[in-house]
């Protein structure tokens, strides 16, 4: 199979497996889904090799070139994000296969396949309408997955649906404007032909608003701390780690292609940066005040989304935008890995202790040390402390801020890290034994071994990647953002 | 202040647009669900008329079929369930919120209108390019060429949307879809006359779609309607619950992905259709898609509109343990 | 005002109307209707843009609208299922309290 043909495998394989999972019994569905995740990881590696070799890998679907047909392209961002998706899905499905509470029901398997296919599609999409349909597929799958958490989760799922679909409609309007102004919906061709500052600015603005709603960027974030905790644990892991990445990538792509074309880009980028700053602070402060494990982790996601959009203003003001791009992408990767670890570990603790309230977790650390360690290590990566991947990304963003003379972003990056450290410490402290009790005599249902190992393995991955980030950075530089397709 | 002159606009277009706008306002403003749904139904039909005015007959047929179906499901739901009473909002606060909303909406509209006014009236050159490529697509109808050849990836993904929505609805629907055991003479007549007519219409739309307005989606929507009516009239094979239906739904998507793979093997690119067998491939896949879409839509909207006698027992069991996720 | 402008502004108006209602109205089913109205507005805009000029309309935006209509129908279907779950739960809670 040529490299170009590989580009659609991460989309079609999970989609087919998801479709089959809808009619196969649970064991077969789980096995197929795990195999598909492993295969997707292998494809990501192969694509990475192809990208290092010859730059972006392009695929004209159905043999028609744009503007008549659809172009897909795998660049550095695509490769690393598909890798993240494979790892996240693998981890979540291994745990869900071991313990059905994490899954929420049989529909977990087909819906996860659909969600994985959709995000992988977004990572390689270069056509705004294809991106729209992929986002809708993702919304349907994610909303249904949230609702698997039980009857009570239906309200959270419906709220998420309204926010996500409204966001999609804003984006569809941007698609209409793109078509109306340039006569095509292919990003590269449209960027070549666009020549009206106001219209391009409107396209960017509409996309930002639409994607902000779907990614839960402040101030459109309030659905997330309700929806993510309401979902079964493996679903929360995928929602935080993967699903919100799809809309962020679309936002980045629009900025990448259309940003340089309009004078309105700079003020829009600043507005995005301000929203990101507010997200980091708001999410961090609220995470410190919540009493339930999953709520804290959800607000942590709200804060981390702020970092992910922080690269936008830096890209426009730094003298080397690649540093900002790569730093932001690495932070996003680190967040993905850490969040899966955190939610899965939290799910394990909650199942064992019978509650997810912080005051109900006393003593769990002596019974489930690996699980608690996973949360701690994941928190270290999110806080951006060395030697984790989060640190590498943060360091690059710090460099970009210094380079742009934007000391306020610097302060934000450091301040946000302190907040992350604080709420991680709070979560860990809740699991300590009550004072004076050294016996570890708390009776807990021990989780399955897979459930204990997977989160720690993921957290360890953040450290490993942090120690040897060069391969990731090379792939990202071989087919950089702004390189065109 | 510039005077808005309507000299270039056809009176009929103006009337239809005005009617569409009025029904849109009614659909969102009427406080009772039944009334709002009926206004929405009329809105959909007027939209279909408008689509015909804009030279988009395929879209008009799809809008009429799907929009009517959606509105129908909403109407059945509104008629069967008591509309929950909204907690009484302070009157003044409600007016204030509406006023702020209207003001923000007006500002947004003004901004949008400004941006839109900068779009030129020149047609995109994509149109002629696509039209010119149609003769190499295997079919003669441009929309079918776009949907099933040039941009068939979008169509595949769209089928996935419908399929997984049905999967989700099947999993989440608490109410077991009740089989109608004694349909009565009126319904039996409907079953004998209307259902076959609809199935024939669906088949015609499907086959005609290769050279005229029509195609898998319109046919699928009509077939879905036929299945729903058949179910409500007690036709036994039309039982839309459970595993067998899902197999039909999923088969369409799998077949499409398989076709993509065949294209890859035959031509080296996913979903590419070699001109020698493009027509046959398109017709075959459209047939499978029609069945998939029809069954999926029927499942979705039967799940959405089902009566909940079977769920009474569920509720009794659920009551002490109304819990959510850990 | 040309026909194109009429349709574009009408589409924008309907979109804004629908989105505003989705955000402000409380009743779940009415919000769902408003969401569908909003999507109709965007479709009107796309189809008006497809029909510019004197020749045959551009089939690509028409295909896009067709896809969009199907997607919205699927979304609405699942939303109705969820709304029923939410409202039945509220009914159950009321019964339990009584």
UniProtKB/TrEMBL annotation, chain A:
Topological relation to the membrane, as annotated: Multi-pass membrane protein
Pfam families referenced in this protein's UniProt entry, alphabetically: Proton_antipo_M
Any GO molecular function: NADH dehydrogenase (ubiquinone) activity
Membrane-crossing residue ranges in chain numbering: 28-52, 64-97, 128-148, 160-179, 199-218, 230-252, 264-284, 296-316, 322-347, 368-386, 406-425, 451-473
Gene Ontology biological process terms in this record: ATP synthesis coupled electron transport
One term under GO cellular component: plasma membrane
NADH:quinone oxidoreductase/Mrp antiporter transmembrane domain boundaries: 125-418
Cell location: Cell membrane; Membrane
Primary location recorded for the protein, binned into one broad class: membrane
Keywords: Cell membrane, Membrane, Transmembrane, Transmembrane helix
Family membership noted in the UniProt record: Belongs to the CPA3 antiporters (TC 2.A.63) subunit D family.
Protein name: Multisubunit sodium/proton antiporter MrpD subunit
Organism for this UniProt entry: Microcella putealis
Lineage: Bacteria, Bacillati, Actinomycetota, Actinomycetes, Micrococcales
From TrEMBL, chain B:
Transmembrane segments: 12-30, 37-54, 60-79, 94-116, 156-177, 189-209, 215-233, 245-271, 277-302
Main location per the UniProt record: membrane
Na+/H+ antiporter MnhB subunit-related protein domain boundaries: 188-299
Protein name: Multisubunit sodium/proton antiporter MrpB subunit
Keywords (A to Z) from UniProt: Cell membrane, Membrane, Transmembrane, Transmembrane helix
A cellular-component GO term for this protein: plasma membrane
UniProt similarity note: Belongs to the CPA3 antiporters (TC 2.A.63) subunit B family.
InterPro entries (alphabetical): CPA3_antiporter_subunitB, MnhB, MrpA_C/MbhD
Pfam families on file: MbhD, MnhB
Domain MrpA C-terminal/MbhD: 19-81
Keyword Protein biosynthesis: no
Membrane topology field: Multi-pass membrane protein
Domain of life: Bacteria
Subcellular location: Cell membrane
PANTHER family: NA(+)/H(+) ANTIPORTER SUBUNIT B, NA(+)_H(+) ANTIPORTER SUBUNIT B
Organism: Microcella putealis
Automatic annotation (TrEMBL), chain C:
Transmembrane domains' residue ranges: 6-25, 32-50, 62-83
Membrane topology: Multi-pass membrane protein
Tagged with keyword Protease: no
InterPro entries noted in UniProt: CPA3_antiporter_subunitC, NUOK/Mnh_C1-like
Example of a GO cellular component annotation carried by this entry: plasma membrane
Cellular compartments annotated: Cell membrane
Family under the similarity heading: Belongs to the CPA3 antiporters (TC 2.A.63) subunit C family.
Name of protein: Multisubunit sodium/proton antiporter MrpC subunit
Organism: Microcella alkaliphila
């Amino acid at each position: 199979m040529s490299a170009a043909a590989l580009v659609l495998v991460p989309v079609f394989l999970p989609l087919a497996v998801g479709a089959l999972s809808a009619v196969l019994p649970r064991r077969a569905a789980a096995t197929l889904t795990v195999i598909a995740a492993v295969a997707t990881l292998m494809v990501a590696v192969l694509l990475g090799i192809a990208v290092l070799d010859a730059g972006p890998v392009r695929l004209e679907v159905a043999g028609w070139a744009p503007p008549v047909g659809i172009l897909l392209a795998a660049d550095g961002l695509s490769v690393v994000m598909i890798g993240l998706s494979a790892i996240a899905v693998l981890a979540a499905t291994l745990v869900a296969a071991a313990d059905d509470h994490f899954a929420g029901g049989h529909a977990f398997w087909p819906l996860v396949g659909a969600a994985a296919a959709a995000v992988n599609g977004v990572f390689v999409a270069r056509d705004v309408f294809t991106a729209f349909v992929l986002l809708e597929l993702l919304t349907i799958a994610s909303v249904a997955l949230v609702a698997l958490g039980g009857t009570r989760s239906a309200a959270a799922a419906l709220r998420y649906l309204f926010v996500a679909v409204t966001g999609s409609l804003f984006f569809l309007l941007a698609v209409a404007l793109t078509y109306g102004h340039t006569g095509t919906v292919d990003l590269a061709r449209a960027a070549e032909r666009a020549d009206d500052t106001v219209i391009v600015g409107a396209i960017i603005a509409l996309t930002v608003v639409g994607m902000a709603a779907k990614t839960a960027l402040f101030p459109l974030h309030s659905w997330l701390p309700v929806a993510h905790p309401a979902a079964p644990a493996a679903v929360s892991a995928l929602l935080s780690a993967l699903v919100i990445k799809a809309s962020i990538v679309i936002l980045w792509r629009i900025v990448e292609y259309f940003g340089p074309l309009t004078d309105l880009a700079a003020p829009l980028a600043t507005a995005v940066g301000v929203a990101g700053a507010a997200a980091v602070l708001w999410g961090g402060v609220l995470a410190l005040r919540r009493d339930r494990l999953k709520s804290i982790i959800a607000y942590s996601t709200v804060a981390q989304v702020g970092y992910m959009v922080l690269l936008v203003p830096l890209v426009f003001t730094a003298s080397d935008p690649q540093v900002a791009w790569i730093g932001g992408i690495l932070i996003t990767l680190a967040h993905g890995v850490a969040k899966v670890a955190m939610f899965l570990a939290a799910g394990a603790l909650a199942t064992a202790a019978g509650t997810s309230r912080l005051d109900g977790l006393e003593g769990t650390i002596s019974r489930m040390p690996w699980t608690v360690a996973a949360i701690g290590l994941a928190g270290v990566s999110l806080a951006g402390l060395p030697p984790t991947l989060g640190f590498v990304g943060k360091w690059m963003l710090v460099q970009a801020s210094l380079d742009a003379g934007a000391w306020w972003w610097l302060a934000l990056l450091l301040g946000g890290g302190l907040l992350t450290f604080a709420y991680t410490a709070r979560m860990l402290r809740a699991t300590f034994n009550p004072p004076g009790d050294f016996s570890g005599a708390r009776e807990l249902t021990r989780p399955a071994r897979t459930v204990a190992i997977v989160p720690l393995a993921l957290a360890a991955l953040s450290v490993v990647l942090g120690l040897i980030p060069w391969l990731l950075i090379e792939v990202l530089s071989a087919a950089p953002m702004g390189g065109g397709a | 202040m510039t005077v808005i002159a309507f000299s270039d606009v056809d009176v009929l277009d103006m009337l239809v647009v005005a009617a569409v706008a009025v029904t849109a306002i009614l659909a969102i403003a009427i406080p009772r669900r039944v009334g709002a749904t009926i206004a929405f139904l009329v809105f959909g039909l007027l939209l279909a008329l408008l689509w015909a005015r804009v030279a988009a007959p395929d879209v008009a047929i799809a809008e009429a079929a799907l929009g009517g179906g959606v509105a129908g499901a909403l109407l059945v739901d509104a008629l069967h369930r008591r509309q929950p009473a909204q907690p009484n909002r302070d009157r003044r606060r409600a007016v204030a919120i509406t006023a702020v909303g209207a003001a923000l909406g007006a500002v947004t509209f003004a901004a949008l209108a400004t941006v839109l006014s900068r779009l030129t009236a020149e047609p995109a050159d994509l149109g002629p390019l696509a039209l010119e490529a149609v003769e190499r697509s295997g079919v003669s109808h441009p929309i079918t060429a776009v949907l099933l050849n040039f941009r068939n990836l979008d169509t595949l993904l769209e089928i996935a949307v419908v399929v997984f929505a049905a999967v989700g609805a099947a999993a989440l629907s608490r109410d077991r879809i009740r089989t109608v055991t004694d349909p009565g003479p009126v319904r039996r007549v409907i079953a004998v006359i209307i259902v076959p007519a609809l199935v024939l219409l669906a088949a015609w739309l499907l086959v005609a779609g290769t050279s005229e307005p029509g195609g898998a989606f319109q046919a699928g929507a009509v077939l879905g309607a036929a299945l729903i009516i058949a179910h409500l009239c007690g036709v036994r094979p039309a039982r839309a619950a459970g595993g067998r239906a899902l197999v039909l739904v999923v088969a369409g998507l799998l077949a499409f992905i398989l076709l993509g793979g065949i294209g890859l093997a035959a031509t080296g690119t996913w979903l590419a259709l070699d001109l020698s067998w493009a027509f046959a491939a398109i017709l075959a896949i459209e047939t499978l898609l029609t069945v998939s879409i029809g069954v999926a839509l029927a499942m979705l909207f039967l799940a959405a509109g089902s009566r909940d006698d079977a769920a009474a027992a569920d509720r009794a069991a659920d009551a002490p343990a109304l819990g959510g996720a850990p | 005002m040309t026909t194109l402008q009429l349709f574009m502004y009408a589409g924008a108006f309907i979109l804004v109307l629908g989105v505003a209602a989705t955000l402000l109205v409380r009743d779940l089913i009415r919000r769902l209707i408003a969401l569908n109205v909003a999507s109709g507005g965007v479709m009107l805009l796309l189809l008006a843009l497809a029909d510019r000029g004197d020749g045959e309309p551009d089939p690509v935006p028409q295909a896009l609208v067709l896809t969009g209509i199907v997607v919205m129908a699927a979304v609405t279907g699942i939303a109705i299922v969820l709304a029923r779950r939410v409202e039945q739960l509220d009914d159950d809670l009321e019964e339990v309290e009584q």
